[in-house]
Structure formats: structure tokens, C-alpha cells
Amino acid sequence: QVLLVESGGGLVQPGGSLRLSCAASGIISRLYHKAWYRQVPGKQRELVARIGSAGDTYYGDFVKGRFTISRDDAKSTVYLQMNSLKPEDTAVYYCNFQRVSSYWGQGTQVTVSS
């Protein structure tokens, strides 16, 4: 059984930082492309950042150097370091592992507010 468990969300003031983690079990992590998405009520889920199995990275335009995606395949974990957070970054953040199949975490709430 594949399980993705996210952690690290919470409430942070504008300009602050958070580090999200997503630990996978039941799969060979290094074979998978990994990504973070986010979603706010009433809107489609959008891609935040992606790291391919070869280590190539991609970021949504709105990230603009503020976020960094990384992985530790020995721990089957993908991270999202988020700096200079803005109120518009408030959303539920989901991790995704994809190869032939696609697996999702349960989501973690990030709220940026003073």
C-alpha cells in the first residue's frame, strides 16, 4: 500500500518561512517524479514545483525564487522550502509522486496572515 504523509504546514506571518515535508512508503521513491501542488477553495489545483527523477526542477511563475523543492530518496521524502511567504500563498498544499501511477498526500494547510 502506497502512503504519502505530509507535514510542516501551519500559520505564518507575511515574509516568514515554512518547510513542508512529504514522506512516502510502499514505493521506490527514486523512480518517481515528485511535485507540490496547491489549491484554494473554488479554484483548480495548481503546480507549485516539480523535481524529476533525474533531479531537474520546475517552478510555477508565481514562485519567483522564493520556494525550493528538494528530495532525499534515502528517506523517500520530498521537501518544499518556502520563504518570503505572501498572503496569496495561503492554500492547501499537496505532494504528488508520479511515474506510471500517480499518488497524492492528504494535504497540509498553509496560512499566511498577520
What labels would you give this structure?
globular, 114 residues, 0% helix, mainly beta, seven-stranded mixed β-sheet
Structural write-up:
The protein is an all-beta fold. It contains no helices and 11 strands. It is globular. The model has no long low-confidence stretch (mean pLDDT 96).
Q: What is the overall number of helices? A: 0
**Biggest sheet character:** 7 strands, mixed
Shape: globular
Terminal Cα span: 40 Å
Detail the poorly predicted runs.
Answer: none
Please compute the radius of gyration using only Cα atoms. Answer: 13 Å
Helical content stands at under 10%
Tell me, rounded to a whole number, the average pLDDT: 96
Give helix and strand order, one letter per element, not per position: EEEEEEEEEEE
Count of distinct strands = 11
Beta content comes to: over 45%
Structural class, by secondary structure, is mainly beta
Quick structural summary:
The protein is mostly beta strands.
Give the topology.
Elements: E1 3-7, E2 10-12, E3 18-25, E4 33-39, E5 46-51, E6 57-59, E7 67-72, E8 77-82, E9 91-98, E10 102-104, E11 108-112
Parallel strand pairs: 2-11
Antiparallel strand pairs: 1-3, 3-8, 4-5, 4-9, 5-6, 7-8, 9-10, 9-11
